Amino acid sequence: MRVKLAAGNWKMNGLSADLAEIDALAAAHPDPRSEVLICPPATLVAAMAARTDGTAIAVGGQSCHPAASGAHTGDVSAAMLADAGATYVIVGHSERRADHGESDDDVRAQARAALEAGLKVIVCVGETEAQRDASNTLDIISGQLAGSVPDLVTGESLVIAYEPVWAIGTGRTPTTDQIGEVHDFIRARLEARFGTGVGRSVRILYGGSVKPGNATEIFAVSNVDGALVGGASLKASDFGGIIAALDAA
Ligand code: PEP
């Protein structure tokens, strides 16, 4: 039985004053059935972790460097995120792959570092619109899974987020059939690589323009174990609606 996960990615949004949204979220959802995670910018991880202590909300990072420490100006290591109170980190988000040129090898190294630091890792995969139009979606997902996911994972420490690049921040989503096809494919790849025990325990999130209004139909799709949410995670009322839909799924 996989515990569903509602994960919010604040991206480069949020100042100290915005931590009030977390108080509102915690008050509205004191005892959710689903796991709830917010990944704020690195500047807010420690403050959010302190603020959510004693609530059902976990805190994560949005990326990490593969090294534990060293001469990497501007970067944050997995050990630093863990030290600040994070329990998860997202790696391989398409914005990191595009803006920072992160390859599958880079993402795998980051994921490995995260696991070594005791963090759970959310590895993002997803096709561009051109790749979907060329009927290459499953090949792309297959390659990203093989290249970005490290070998030493457990069913609890690894989460996969399927995020079609063209659906992120656009208000567009795949059909539920398209989401189901990719999620079933990811499940089959995980079982083939890690065996059924681990393969069936890994949570697979859908990400890309999830809102309270479309969450219920997306959460009804097979092998959708929750969502990675960008824009709609910034406001407690929106993210709360998504948590409620996941709790009811
Ligand atoms: C994301 O950035 O991971 C994401 C899914 O964004 P949005 O929900 O805004 O599409």
Question: Can you tell me about this structure?
Answer:
The protein is an alpha/beta fold and 249 residues long. It has a single domain (5-248), classed as Alpha-Beta Barrel (TIM Barrel), CATH 3.20.20.70. Helix content is 42%, strand content 16%. The chain has helices at residues 19-28, 45-52, 78-83, 94-99, 104-116, 129-133, 137-148, 176-199, 212-219, 236-248; strands at residues 5-9, 35-39, 57-61, 88-91, 120-125, 158-162, 203-207, 226-229. The protein has an eight-stranded parallel beta barrel with strand order 1-2-3-4-5-6-7-8, surrounded by five helices. The chain is globular, with a radius of gyration of 17 Å. The mean pLDDT is 97. The structure holds phosphoenolpyruvate (PEP).
Keywords:
249 residues, alpha/beta, TIM Barrel, 10 helices, 42% helix, globular
Topology:
Layout: E1 5-9, H1 19-28, E2 35-39, H2 45-52, E3 57-61, H3 78-83, E4 88-91, H4 94-99, H5 104-116, E5 120-125, H6 129-133, H7 137-148, E6 158-162, H8 176-199, E7 203-207, H9 212-219, E8 226-229, H10 236-248
Parallel strand pairs: 1-2, 1-8, 2-3, 3-4, 4-5, 5-6, 6-7, 7-8
Helix pairs in contact: 1-2, 1-10, 5-7, 7-8, 9-10
Task: Briefly say what this structure is.
By secondary structure, the protein is an alpha/beta fold. It has helices at 19-28, 45-52, 78-83, 94-99, 104-116, 129-133, 137-148, 176-199, 212-219, 236-248, and strands at residues 5-9, 35-39, 57-61, 88-91, 120-125, 158-162, 203-207, 226-229. The mean pLDDT is 97.
Low-confidence stretches: none
Radius of gyration: 17 Å
Category from helices, strands and their pairing? alpha/beta
Q: Give a quick account of the main beta sheet: strands, pairing sense, barrel closure.
A: 8 strands, parallel, barrel
CATH class: Alpha Beta
Mean pLDDT: 97
The CATH architecture can be named as: Alpha-Beta Barrel
Distance between the termini: 13 Å
